[in-house]
Amino acid sequence: MKSNNMSLILLSLFFFVIPFAFARLQVGFYSTSCPQVESIVRQVVKQRFGRDKSITAALLRMHFHDCFVKGCDASILIDSTSEKESEKTAGPNLTVRGYEFIDEIKKRLETACPSTVSCADIITLATRDAVALSGGPNYNVPTGRLDGLISDPSKVNLPGPSSSVSEAVQIFNSKGMTLNDMVTLLGAHTVGVAHCNFFEDRLSSSNGGKTDPTMDPSLDAKLVKLCGSSSNPNPSTFLDQGTGNVFDNQFFNQILSKKGVLQIDQELAVDRSSVRIVSNFARNGAAFQKSFADAMIKLGNLQDGSDGEIRKNCRVFN
Question: What is the pTM for the complete model shown?
Fold first, then answer.
């Protein structure tokens, strides 16, 4: 009898795990198990956005940095321990923020639907909602992701602020994404900021008074003054110098006018392979918005096929 009970327990666990492990992403994945998931996420995002519009840029960065390692599996949310470091300690992730906000959403969802909604899906849904609130596209997000079982800082390989277009596109291609996807997703820099340490090497103050020929002299002068401020050791500036809190296509007009803050951003408007895409998005805001929605769905679908889990706490493995 004891053996039969054990068999039933193992069989029950098997059927509990399998539907998740082999589930395909689909719009409305939680329609039965947690039908209120999207409304809960949207409500919490709206509350935060009302007092902190910078949350859009924070979530976009978190989502991108998560998906570009082992797929969108919330591995970036895992805290390091005394025995093992997590992705949070990798150089590119040291300035990622918004973890406590994901915790807040997770807490609400655990109350409504315990052990049902993955942290990976929370990041994806929250990012979509924040983009829409900032003026960007509102698109349907497939859900059904699992939370990963590995968080390894050595696996973090992301395009850097000084990358060339060719270097960056190689990394995107390795993830099955195209040059158009890359230009589109870098258009997320229409919101958010960069700190001086990410672009100071481009400024005349770091080059013997010589202005970078790809940077507008007035922007150089503005940034030299900003970064030379003694009151703040590492101040920041909007990546889109025109409409930094609005998700629009003005970022592309800015870089065509040599007002890209980061080297990689400005390179998009200089490199022959990408300038036509930049020019199209600068002229046609609707084309950018549609391309962005498509690219975000494609980014969100990145998976490595590994097994996973639904974490109770987004910061630790179950």
Answer: 0.90
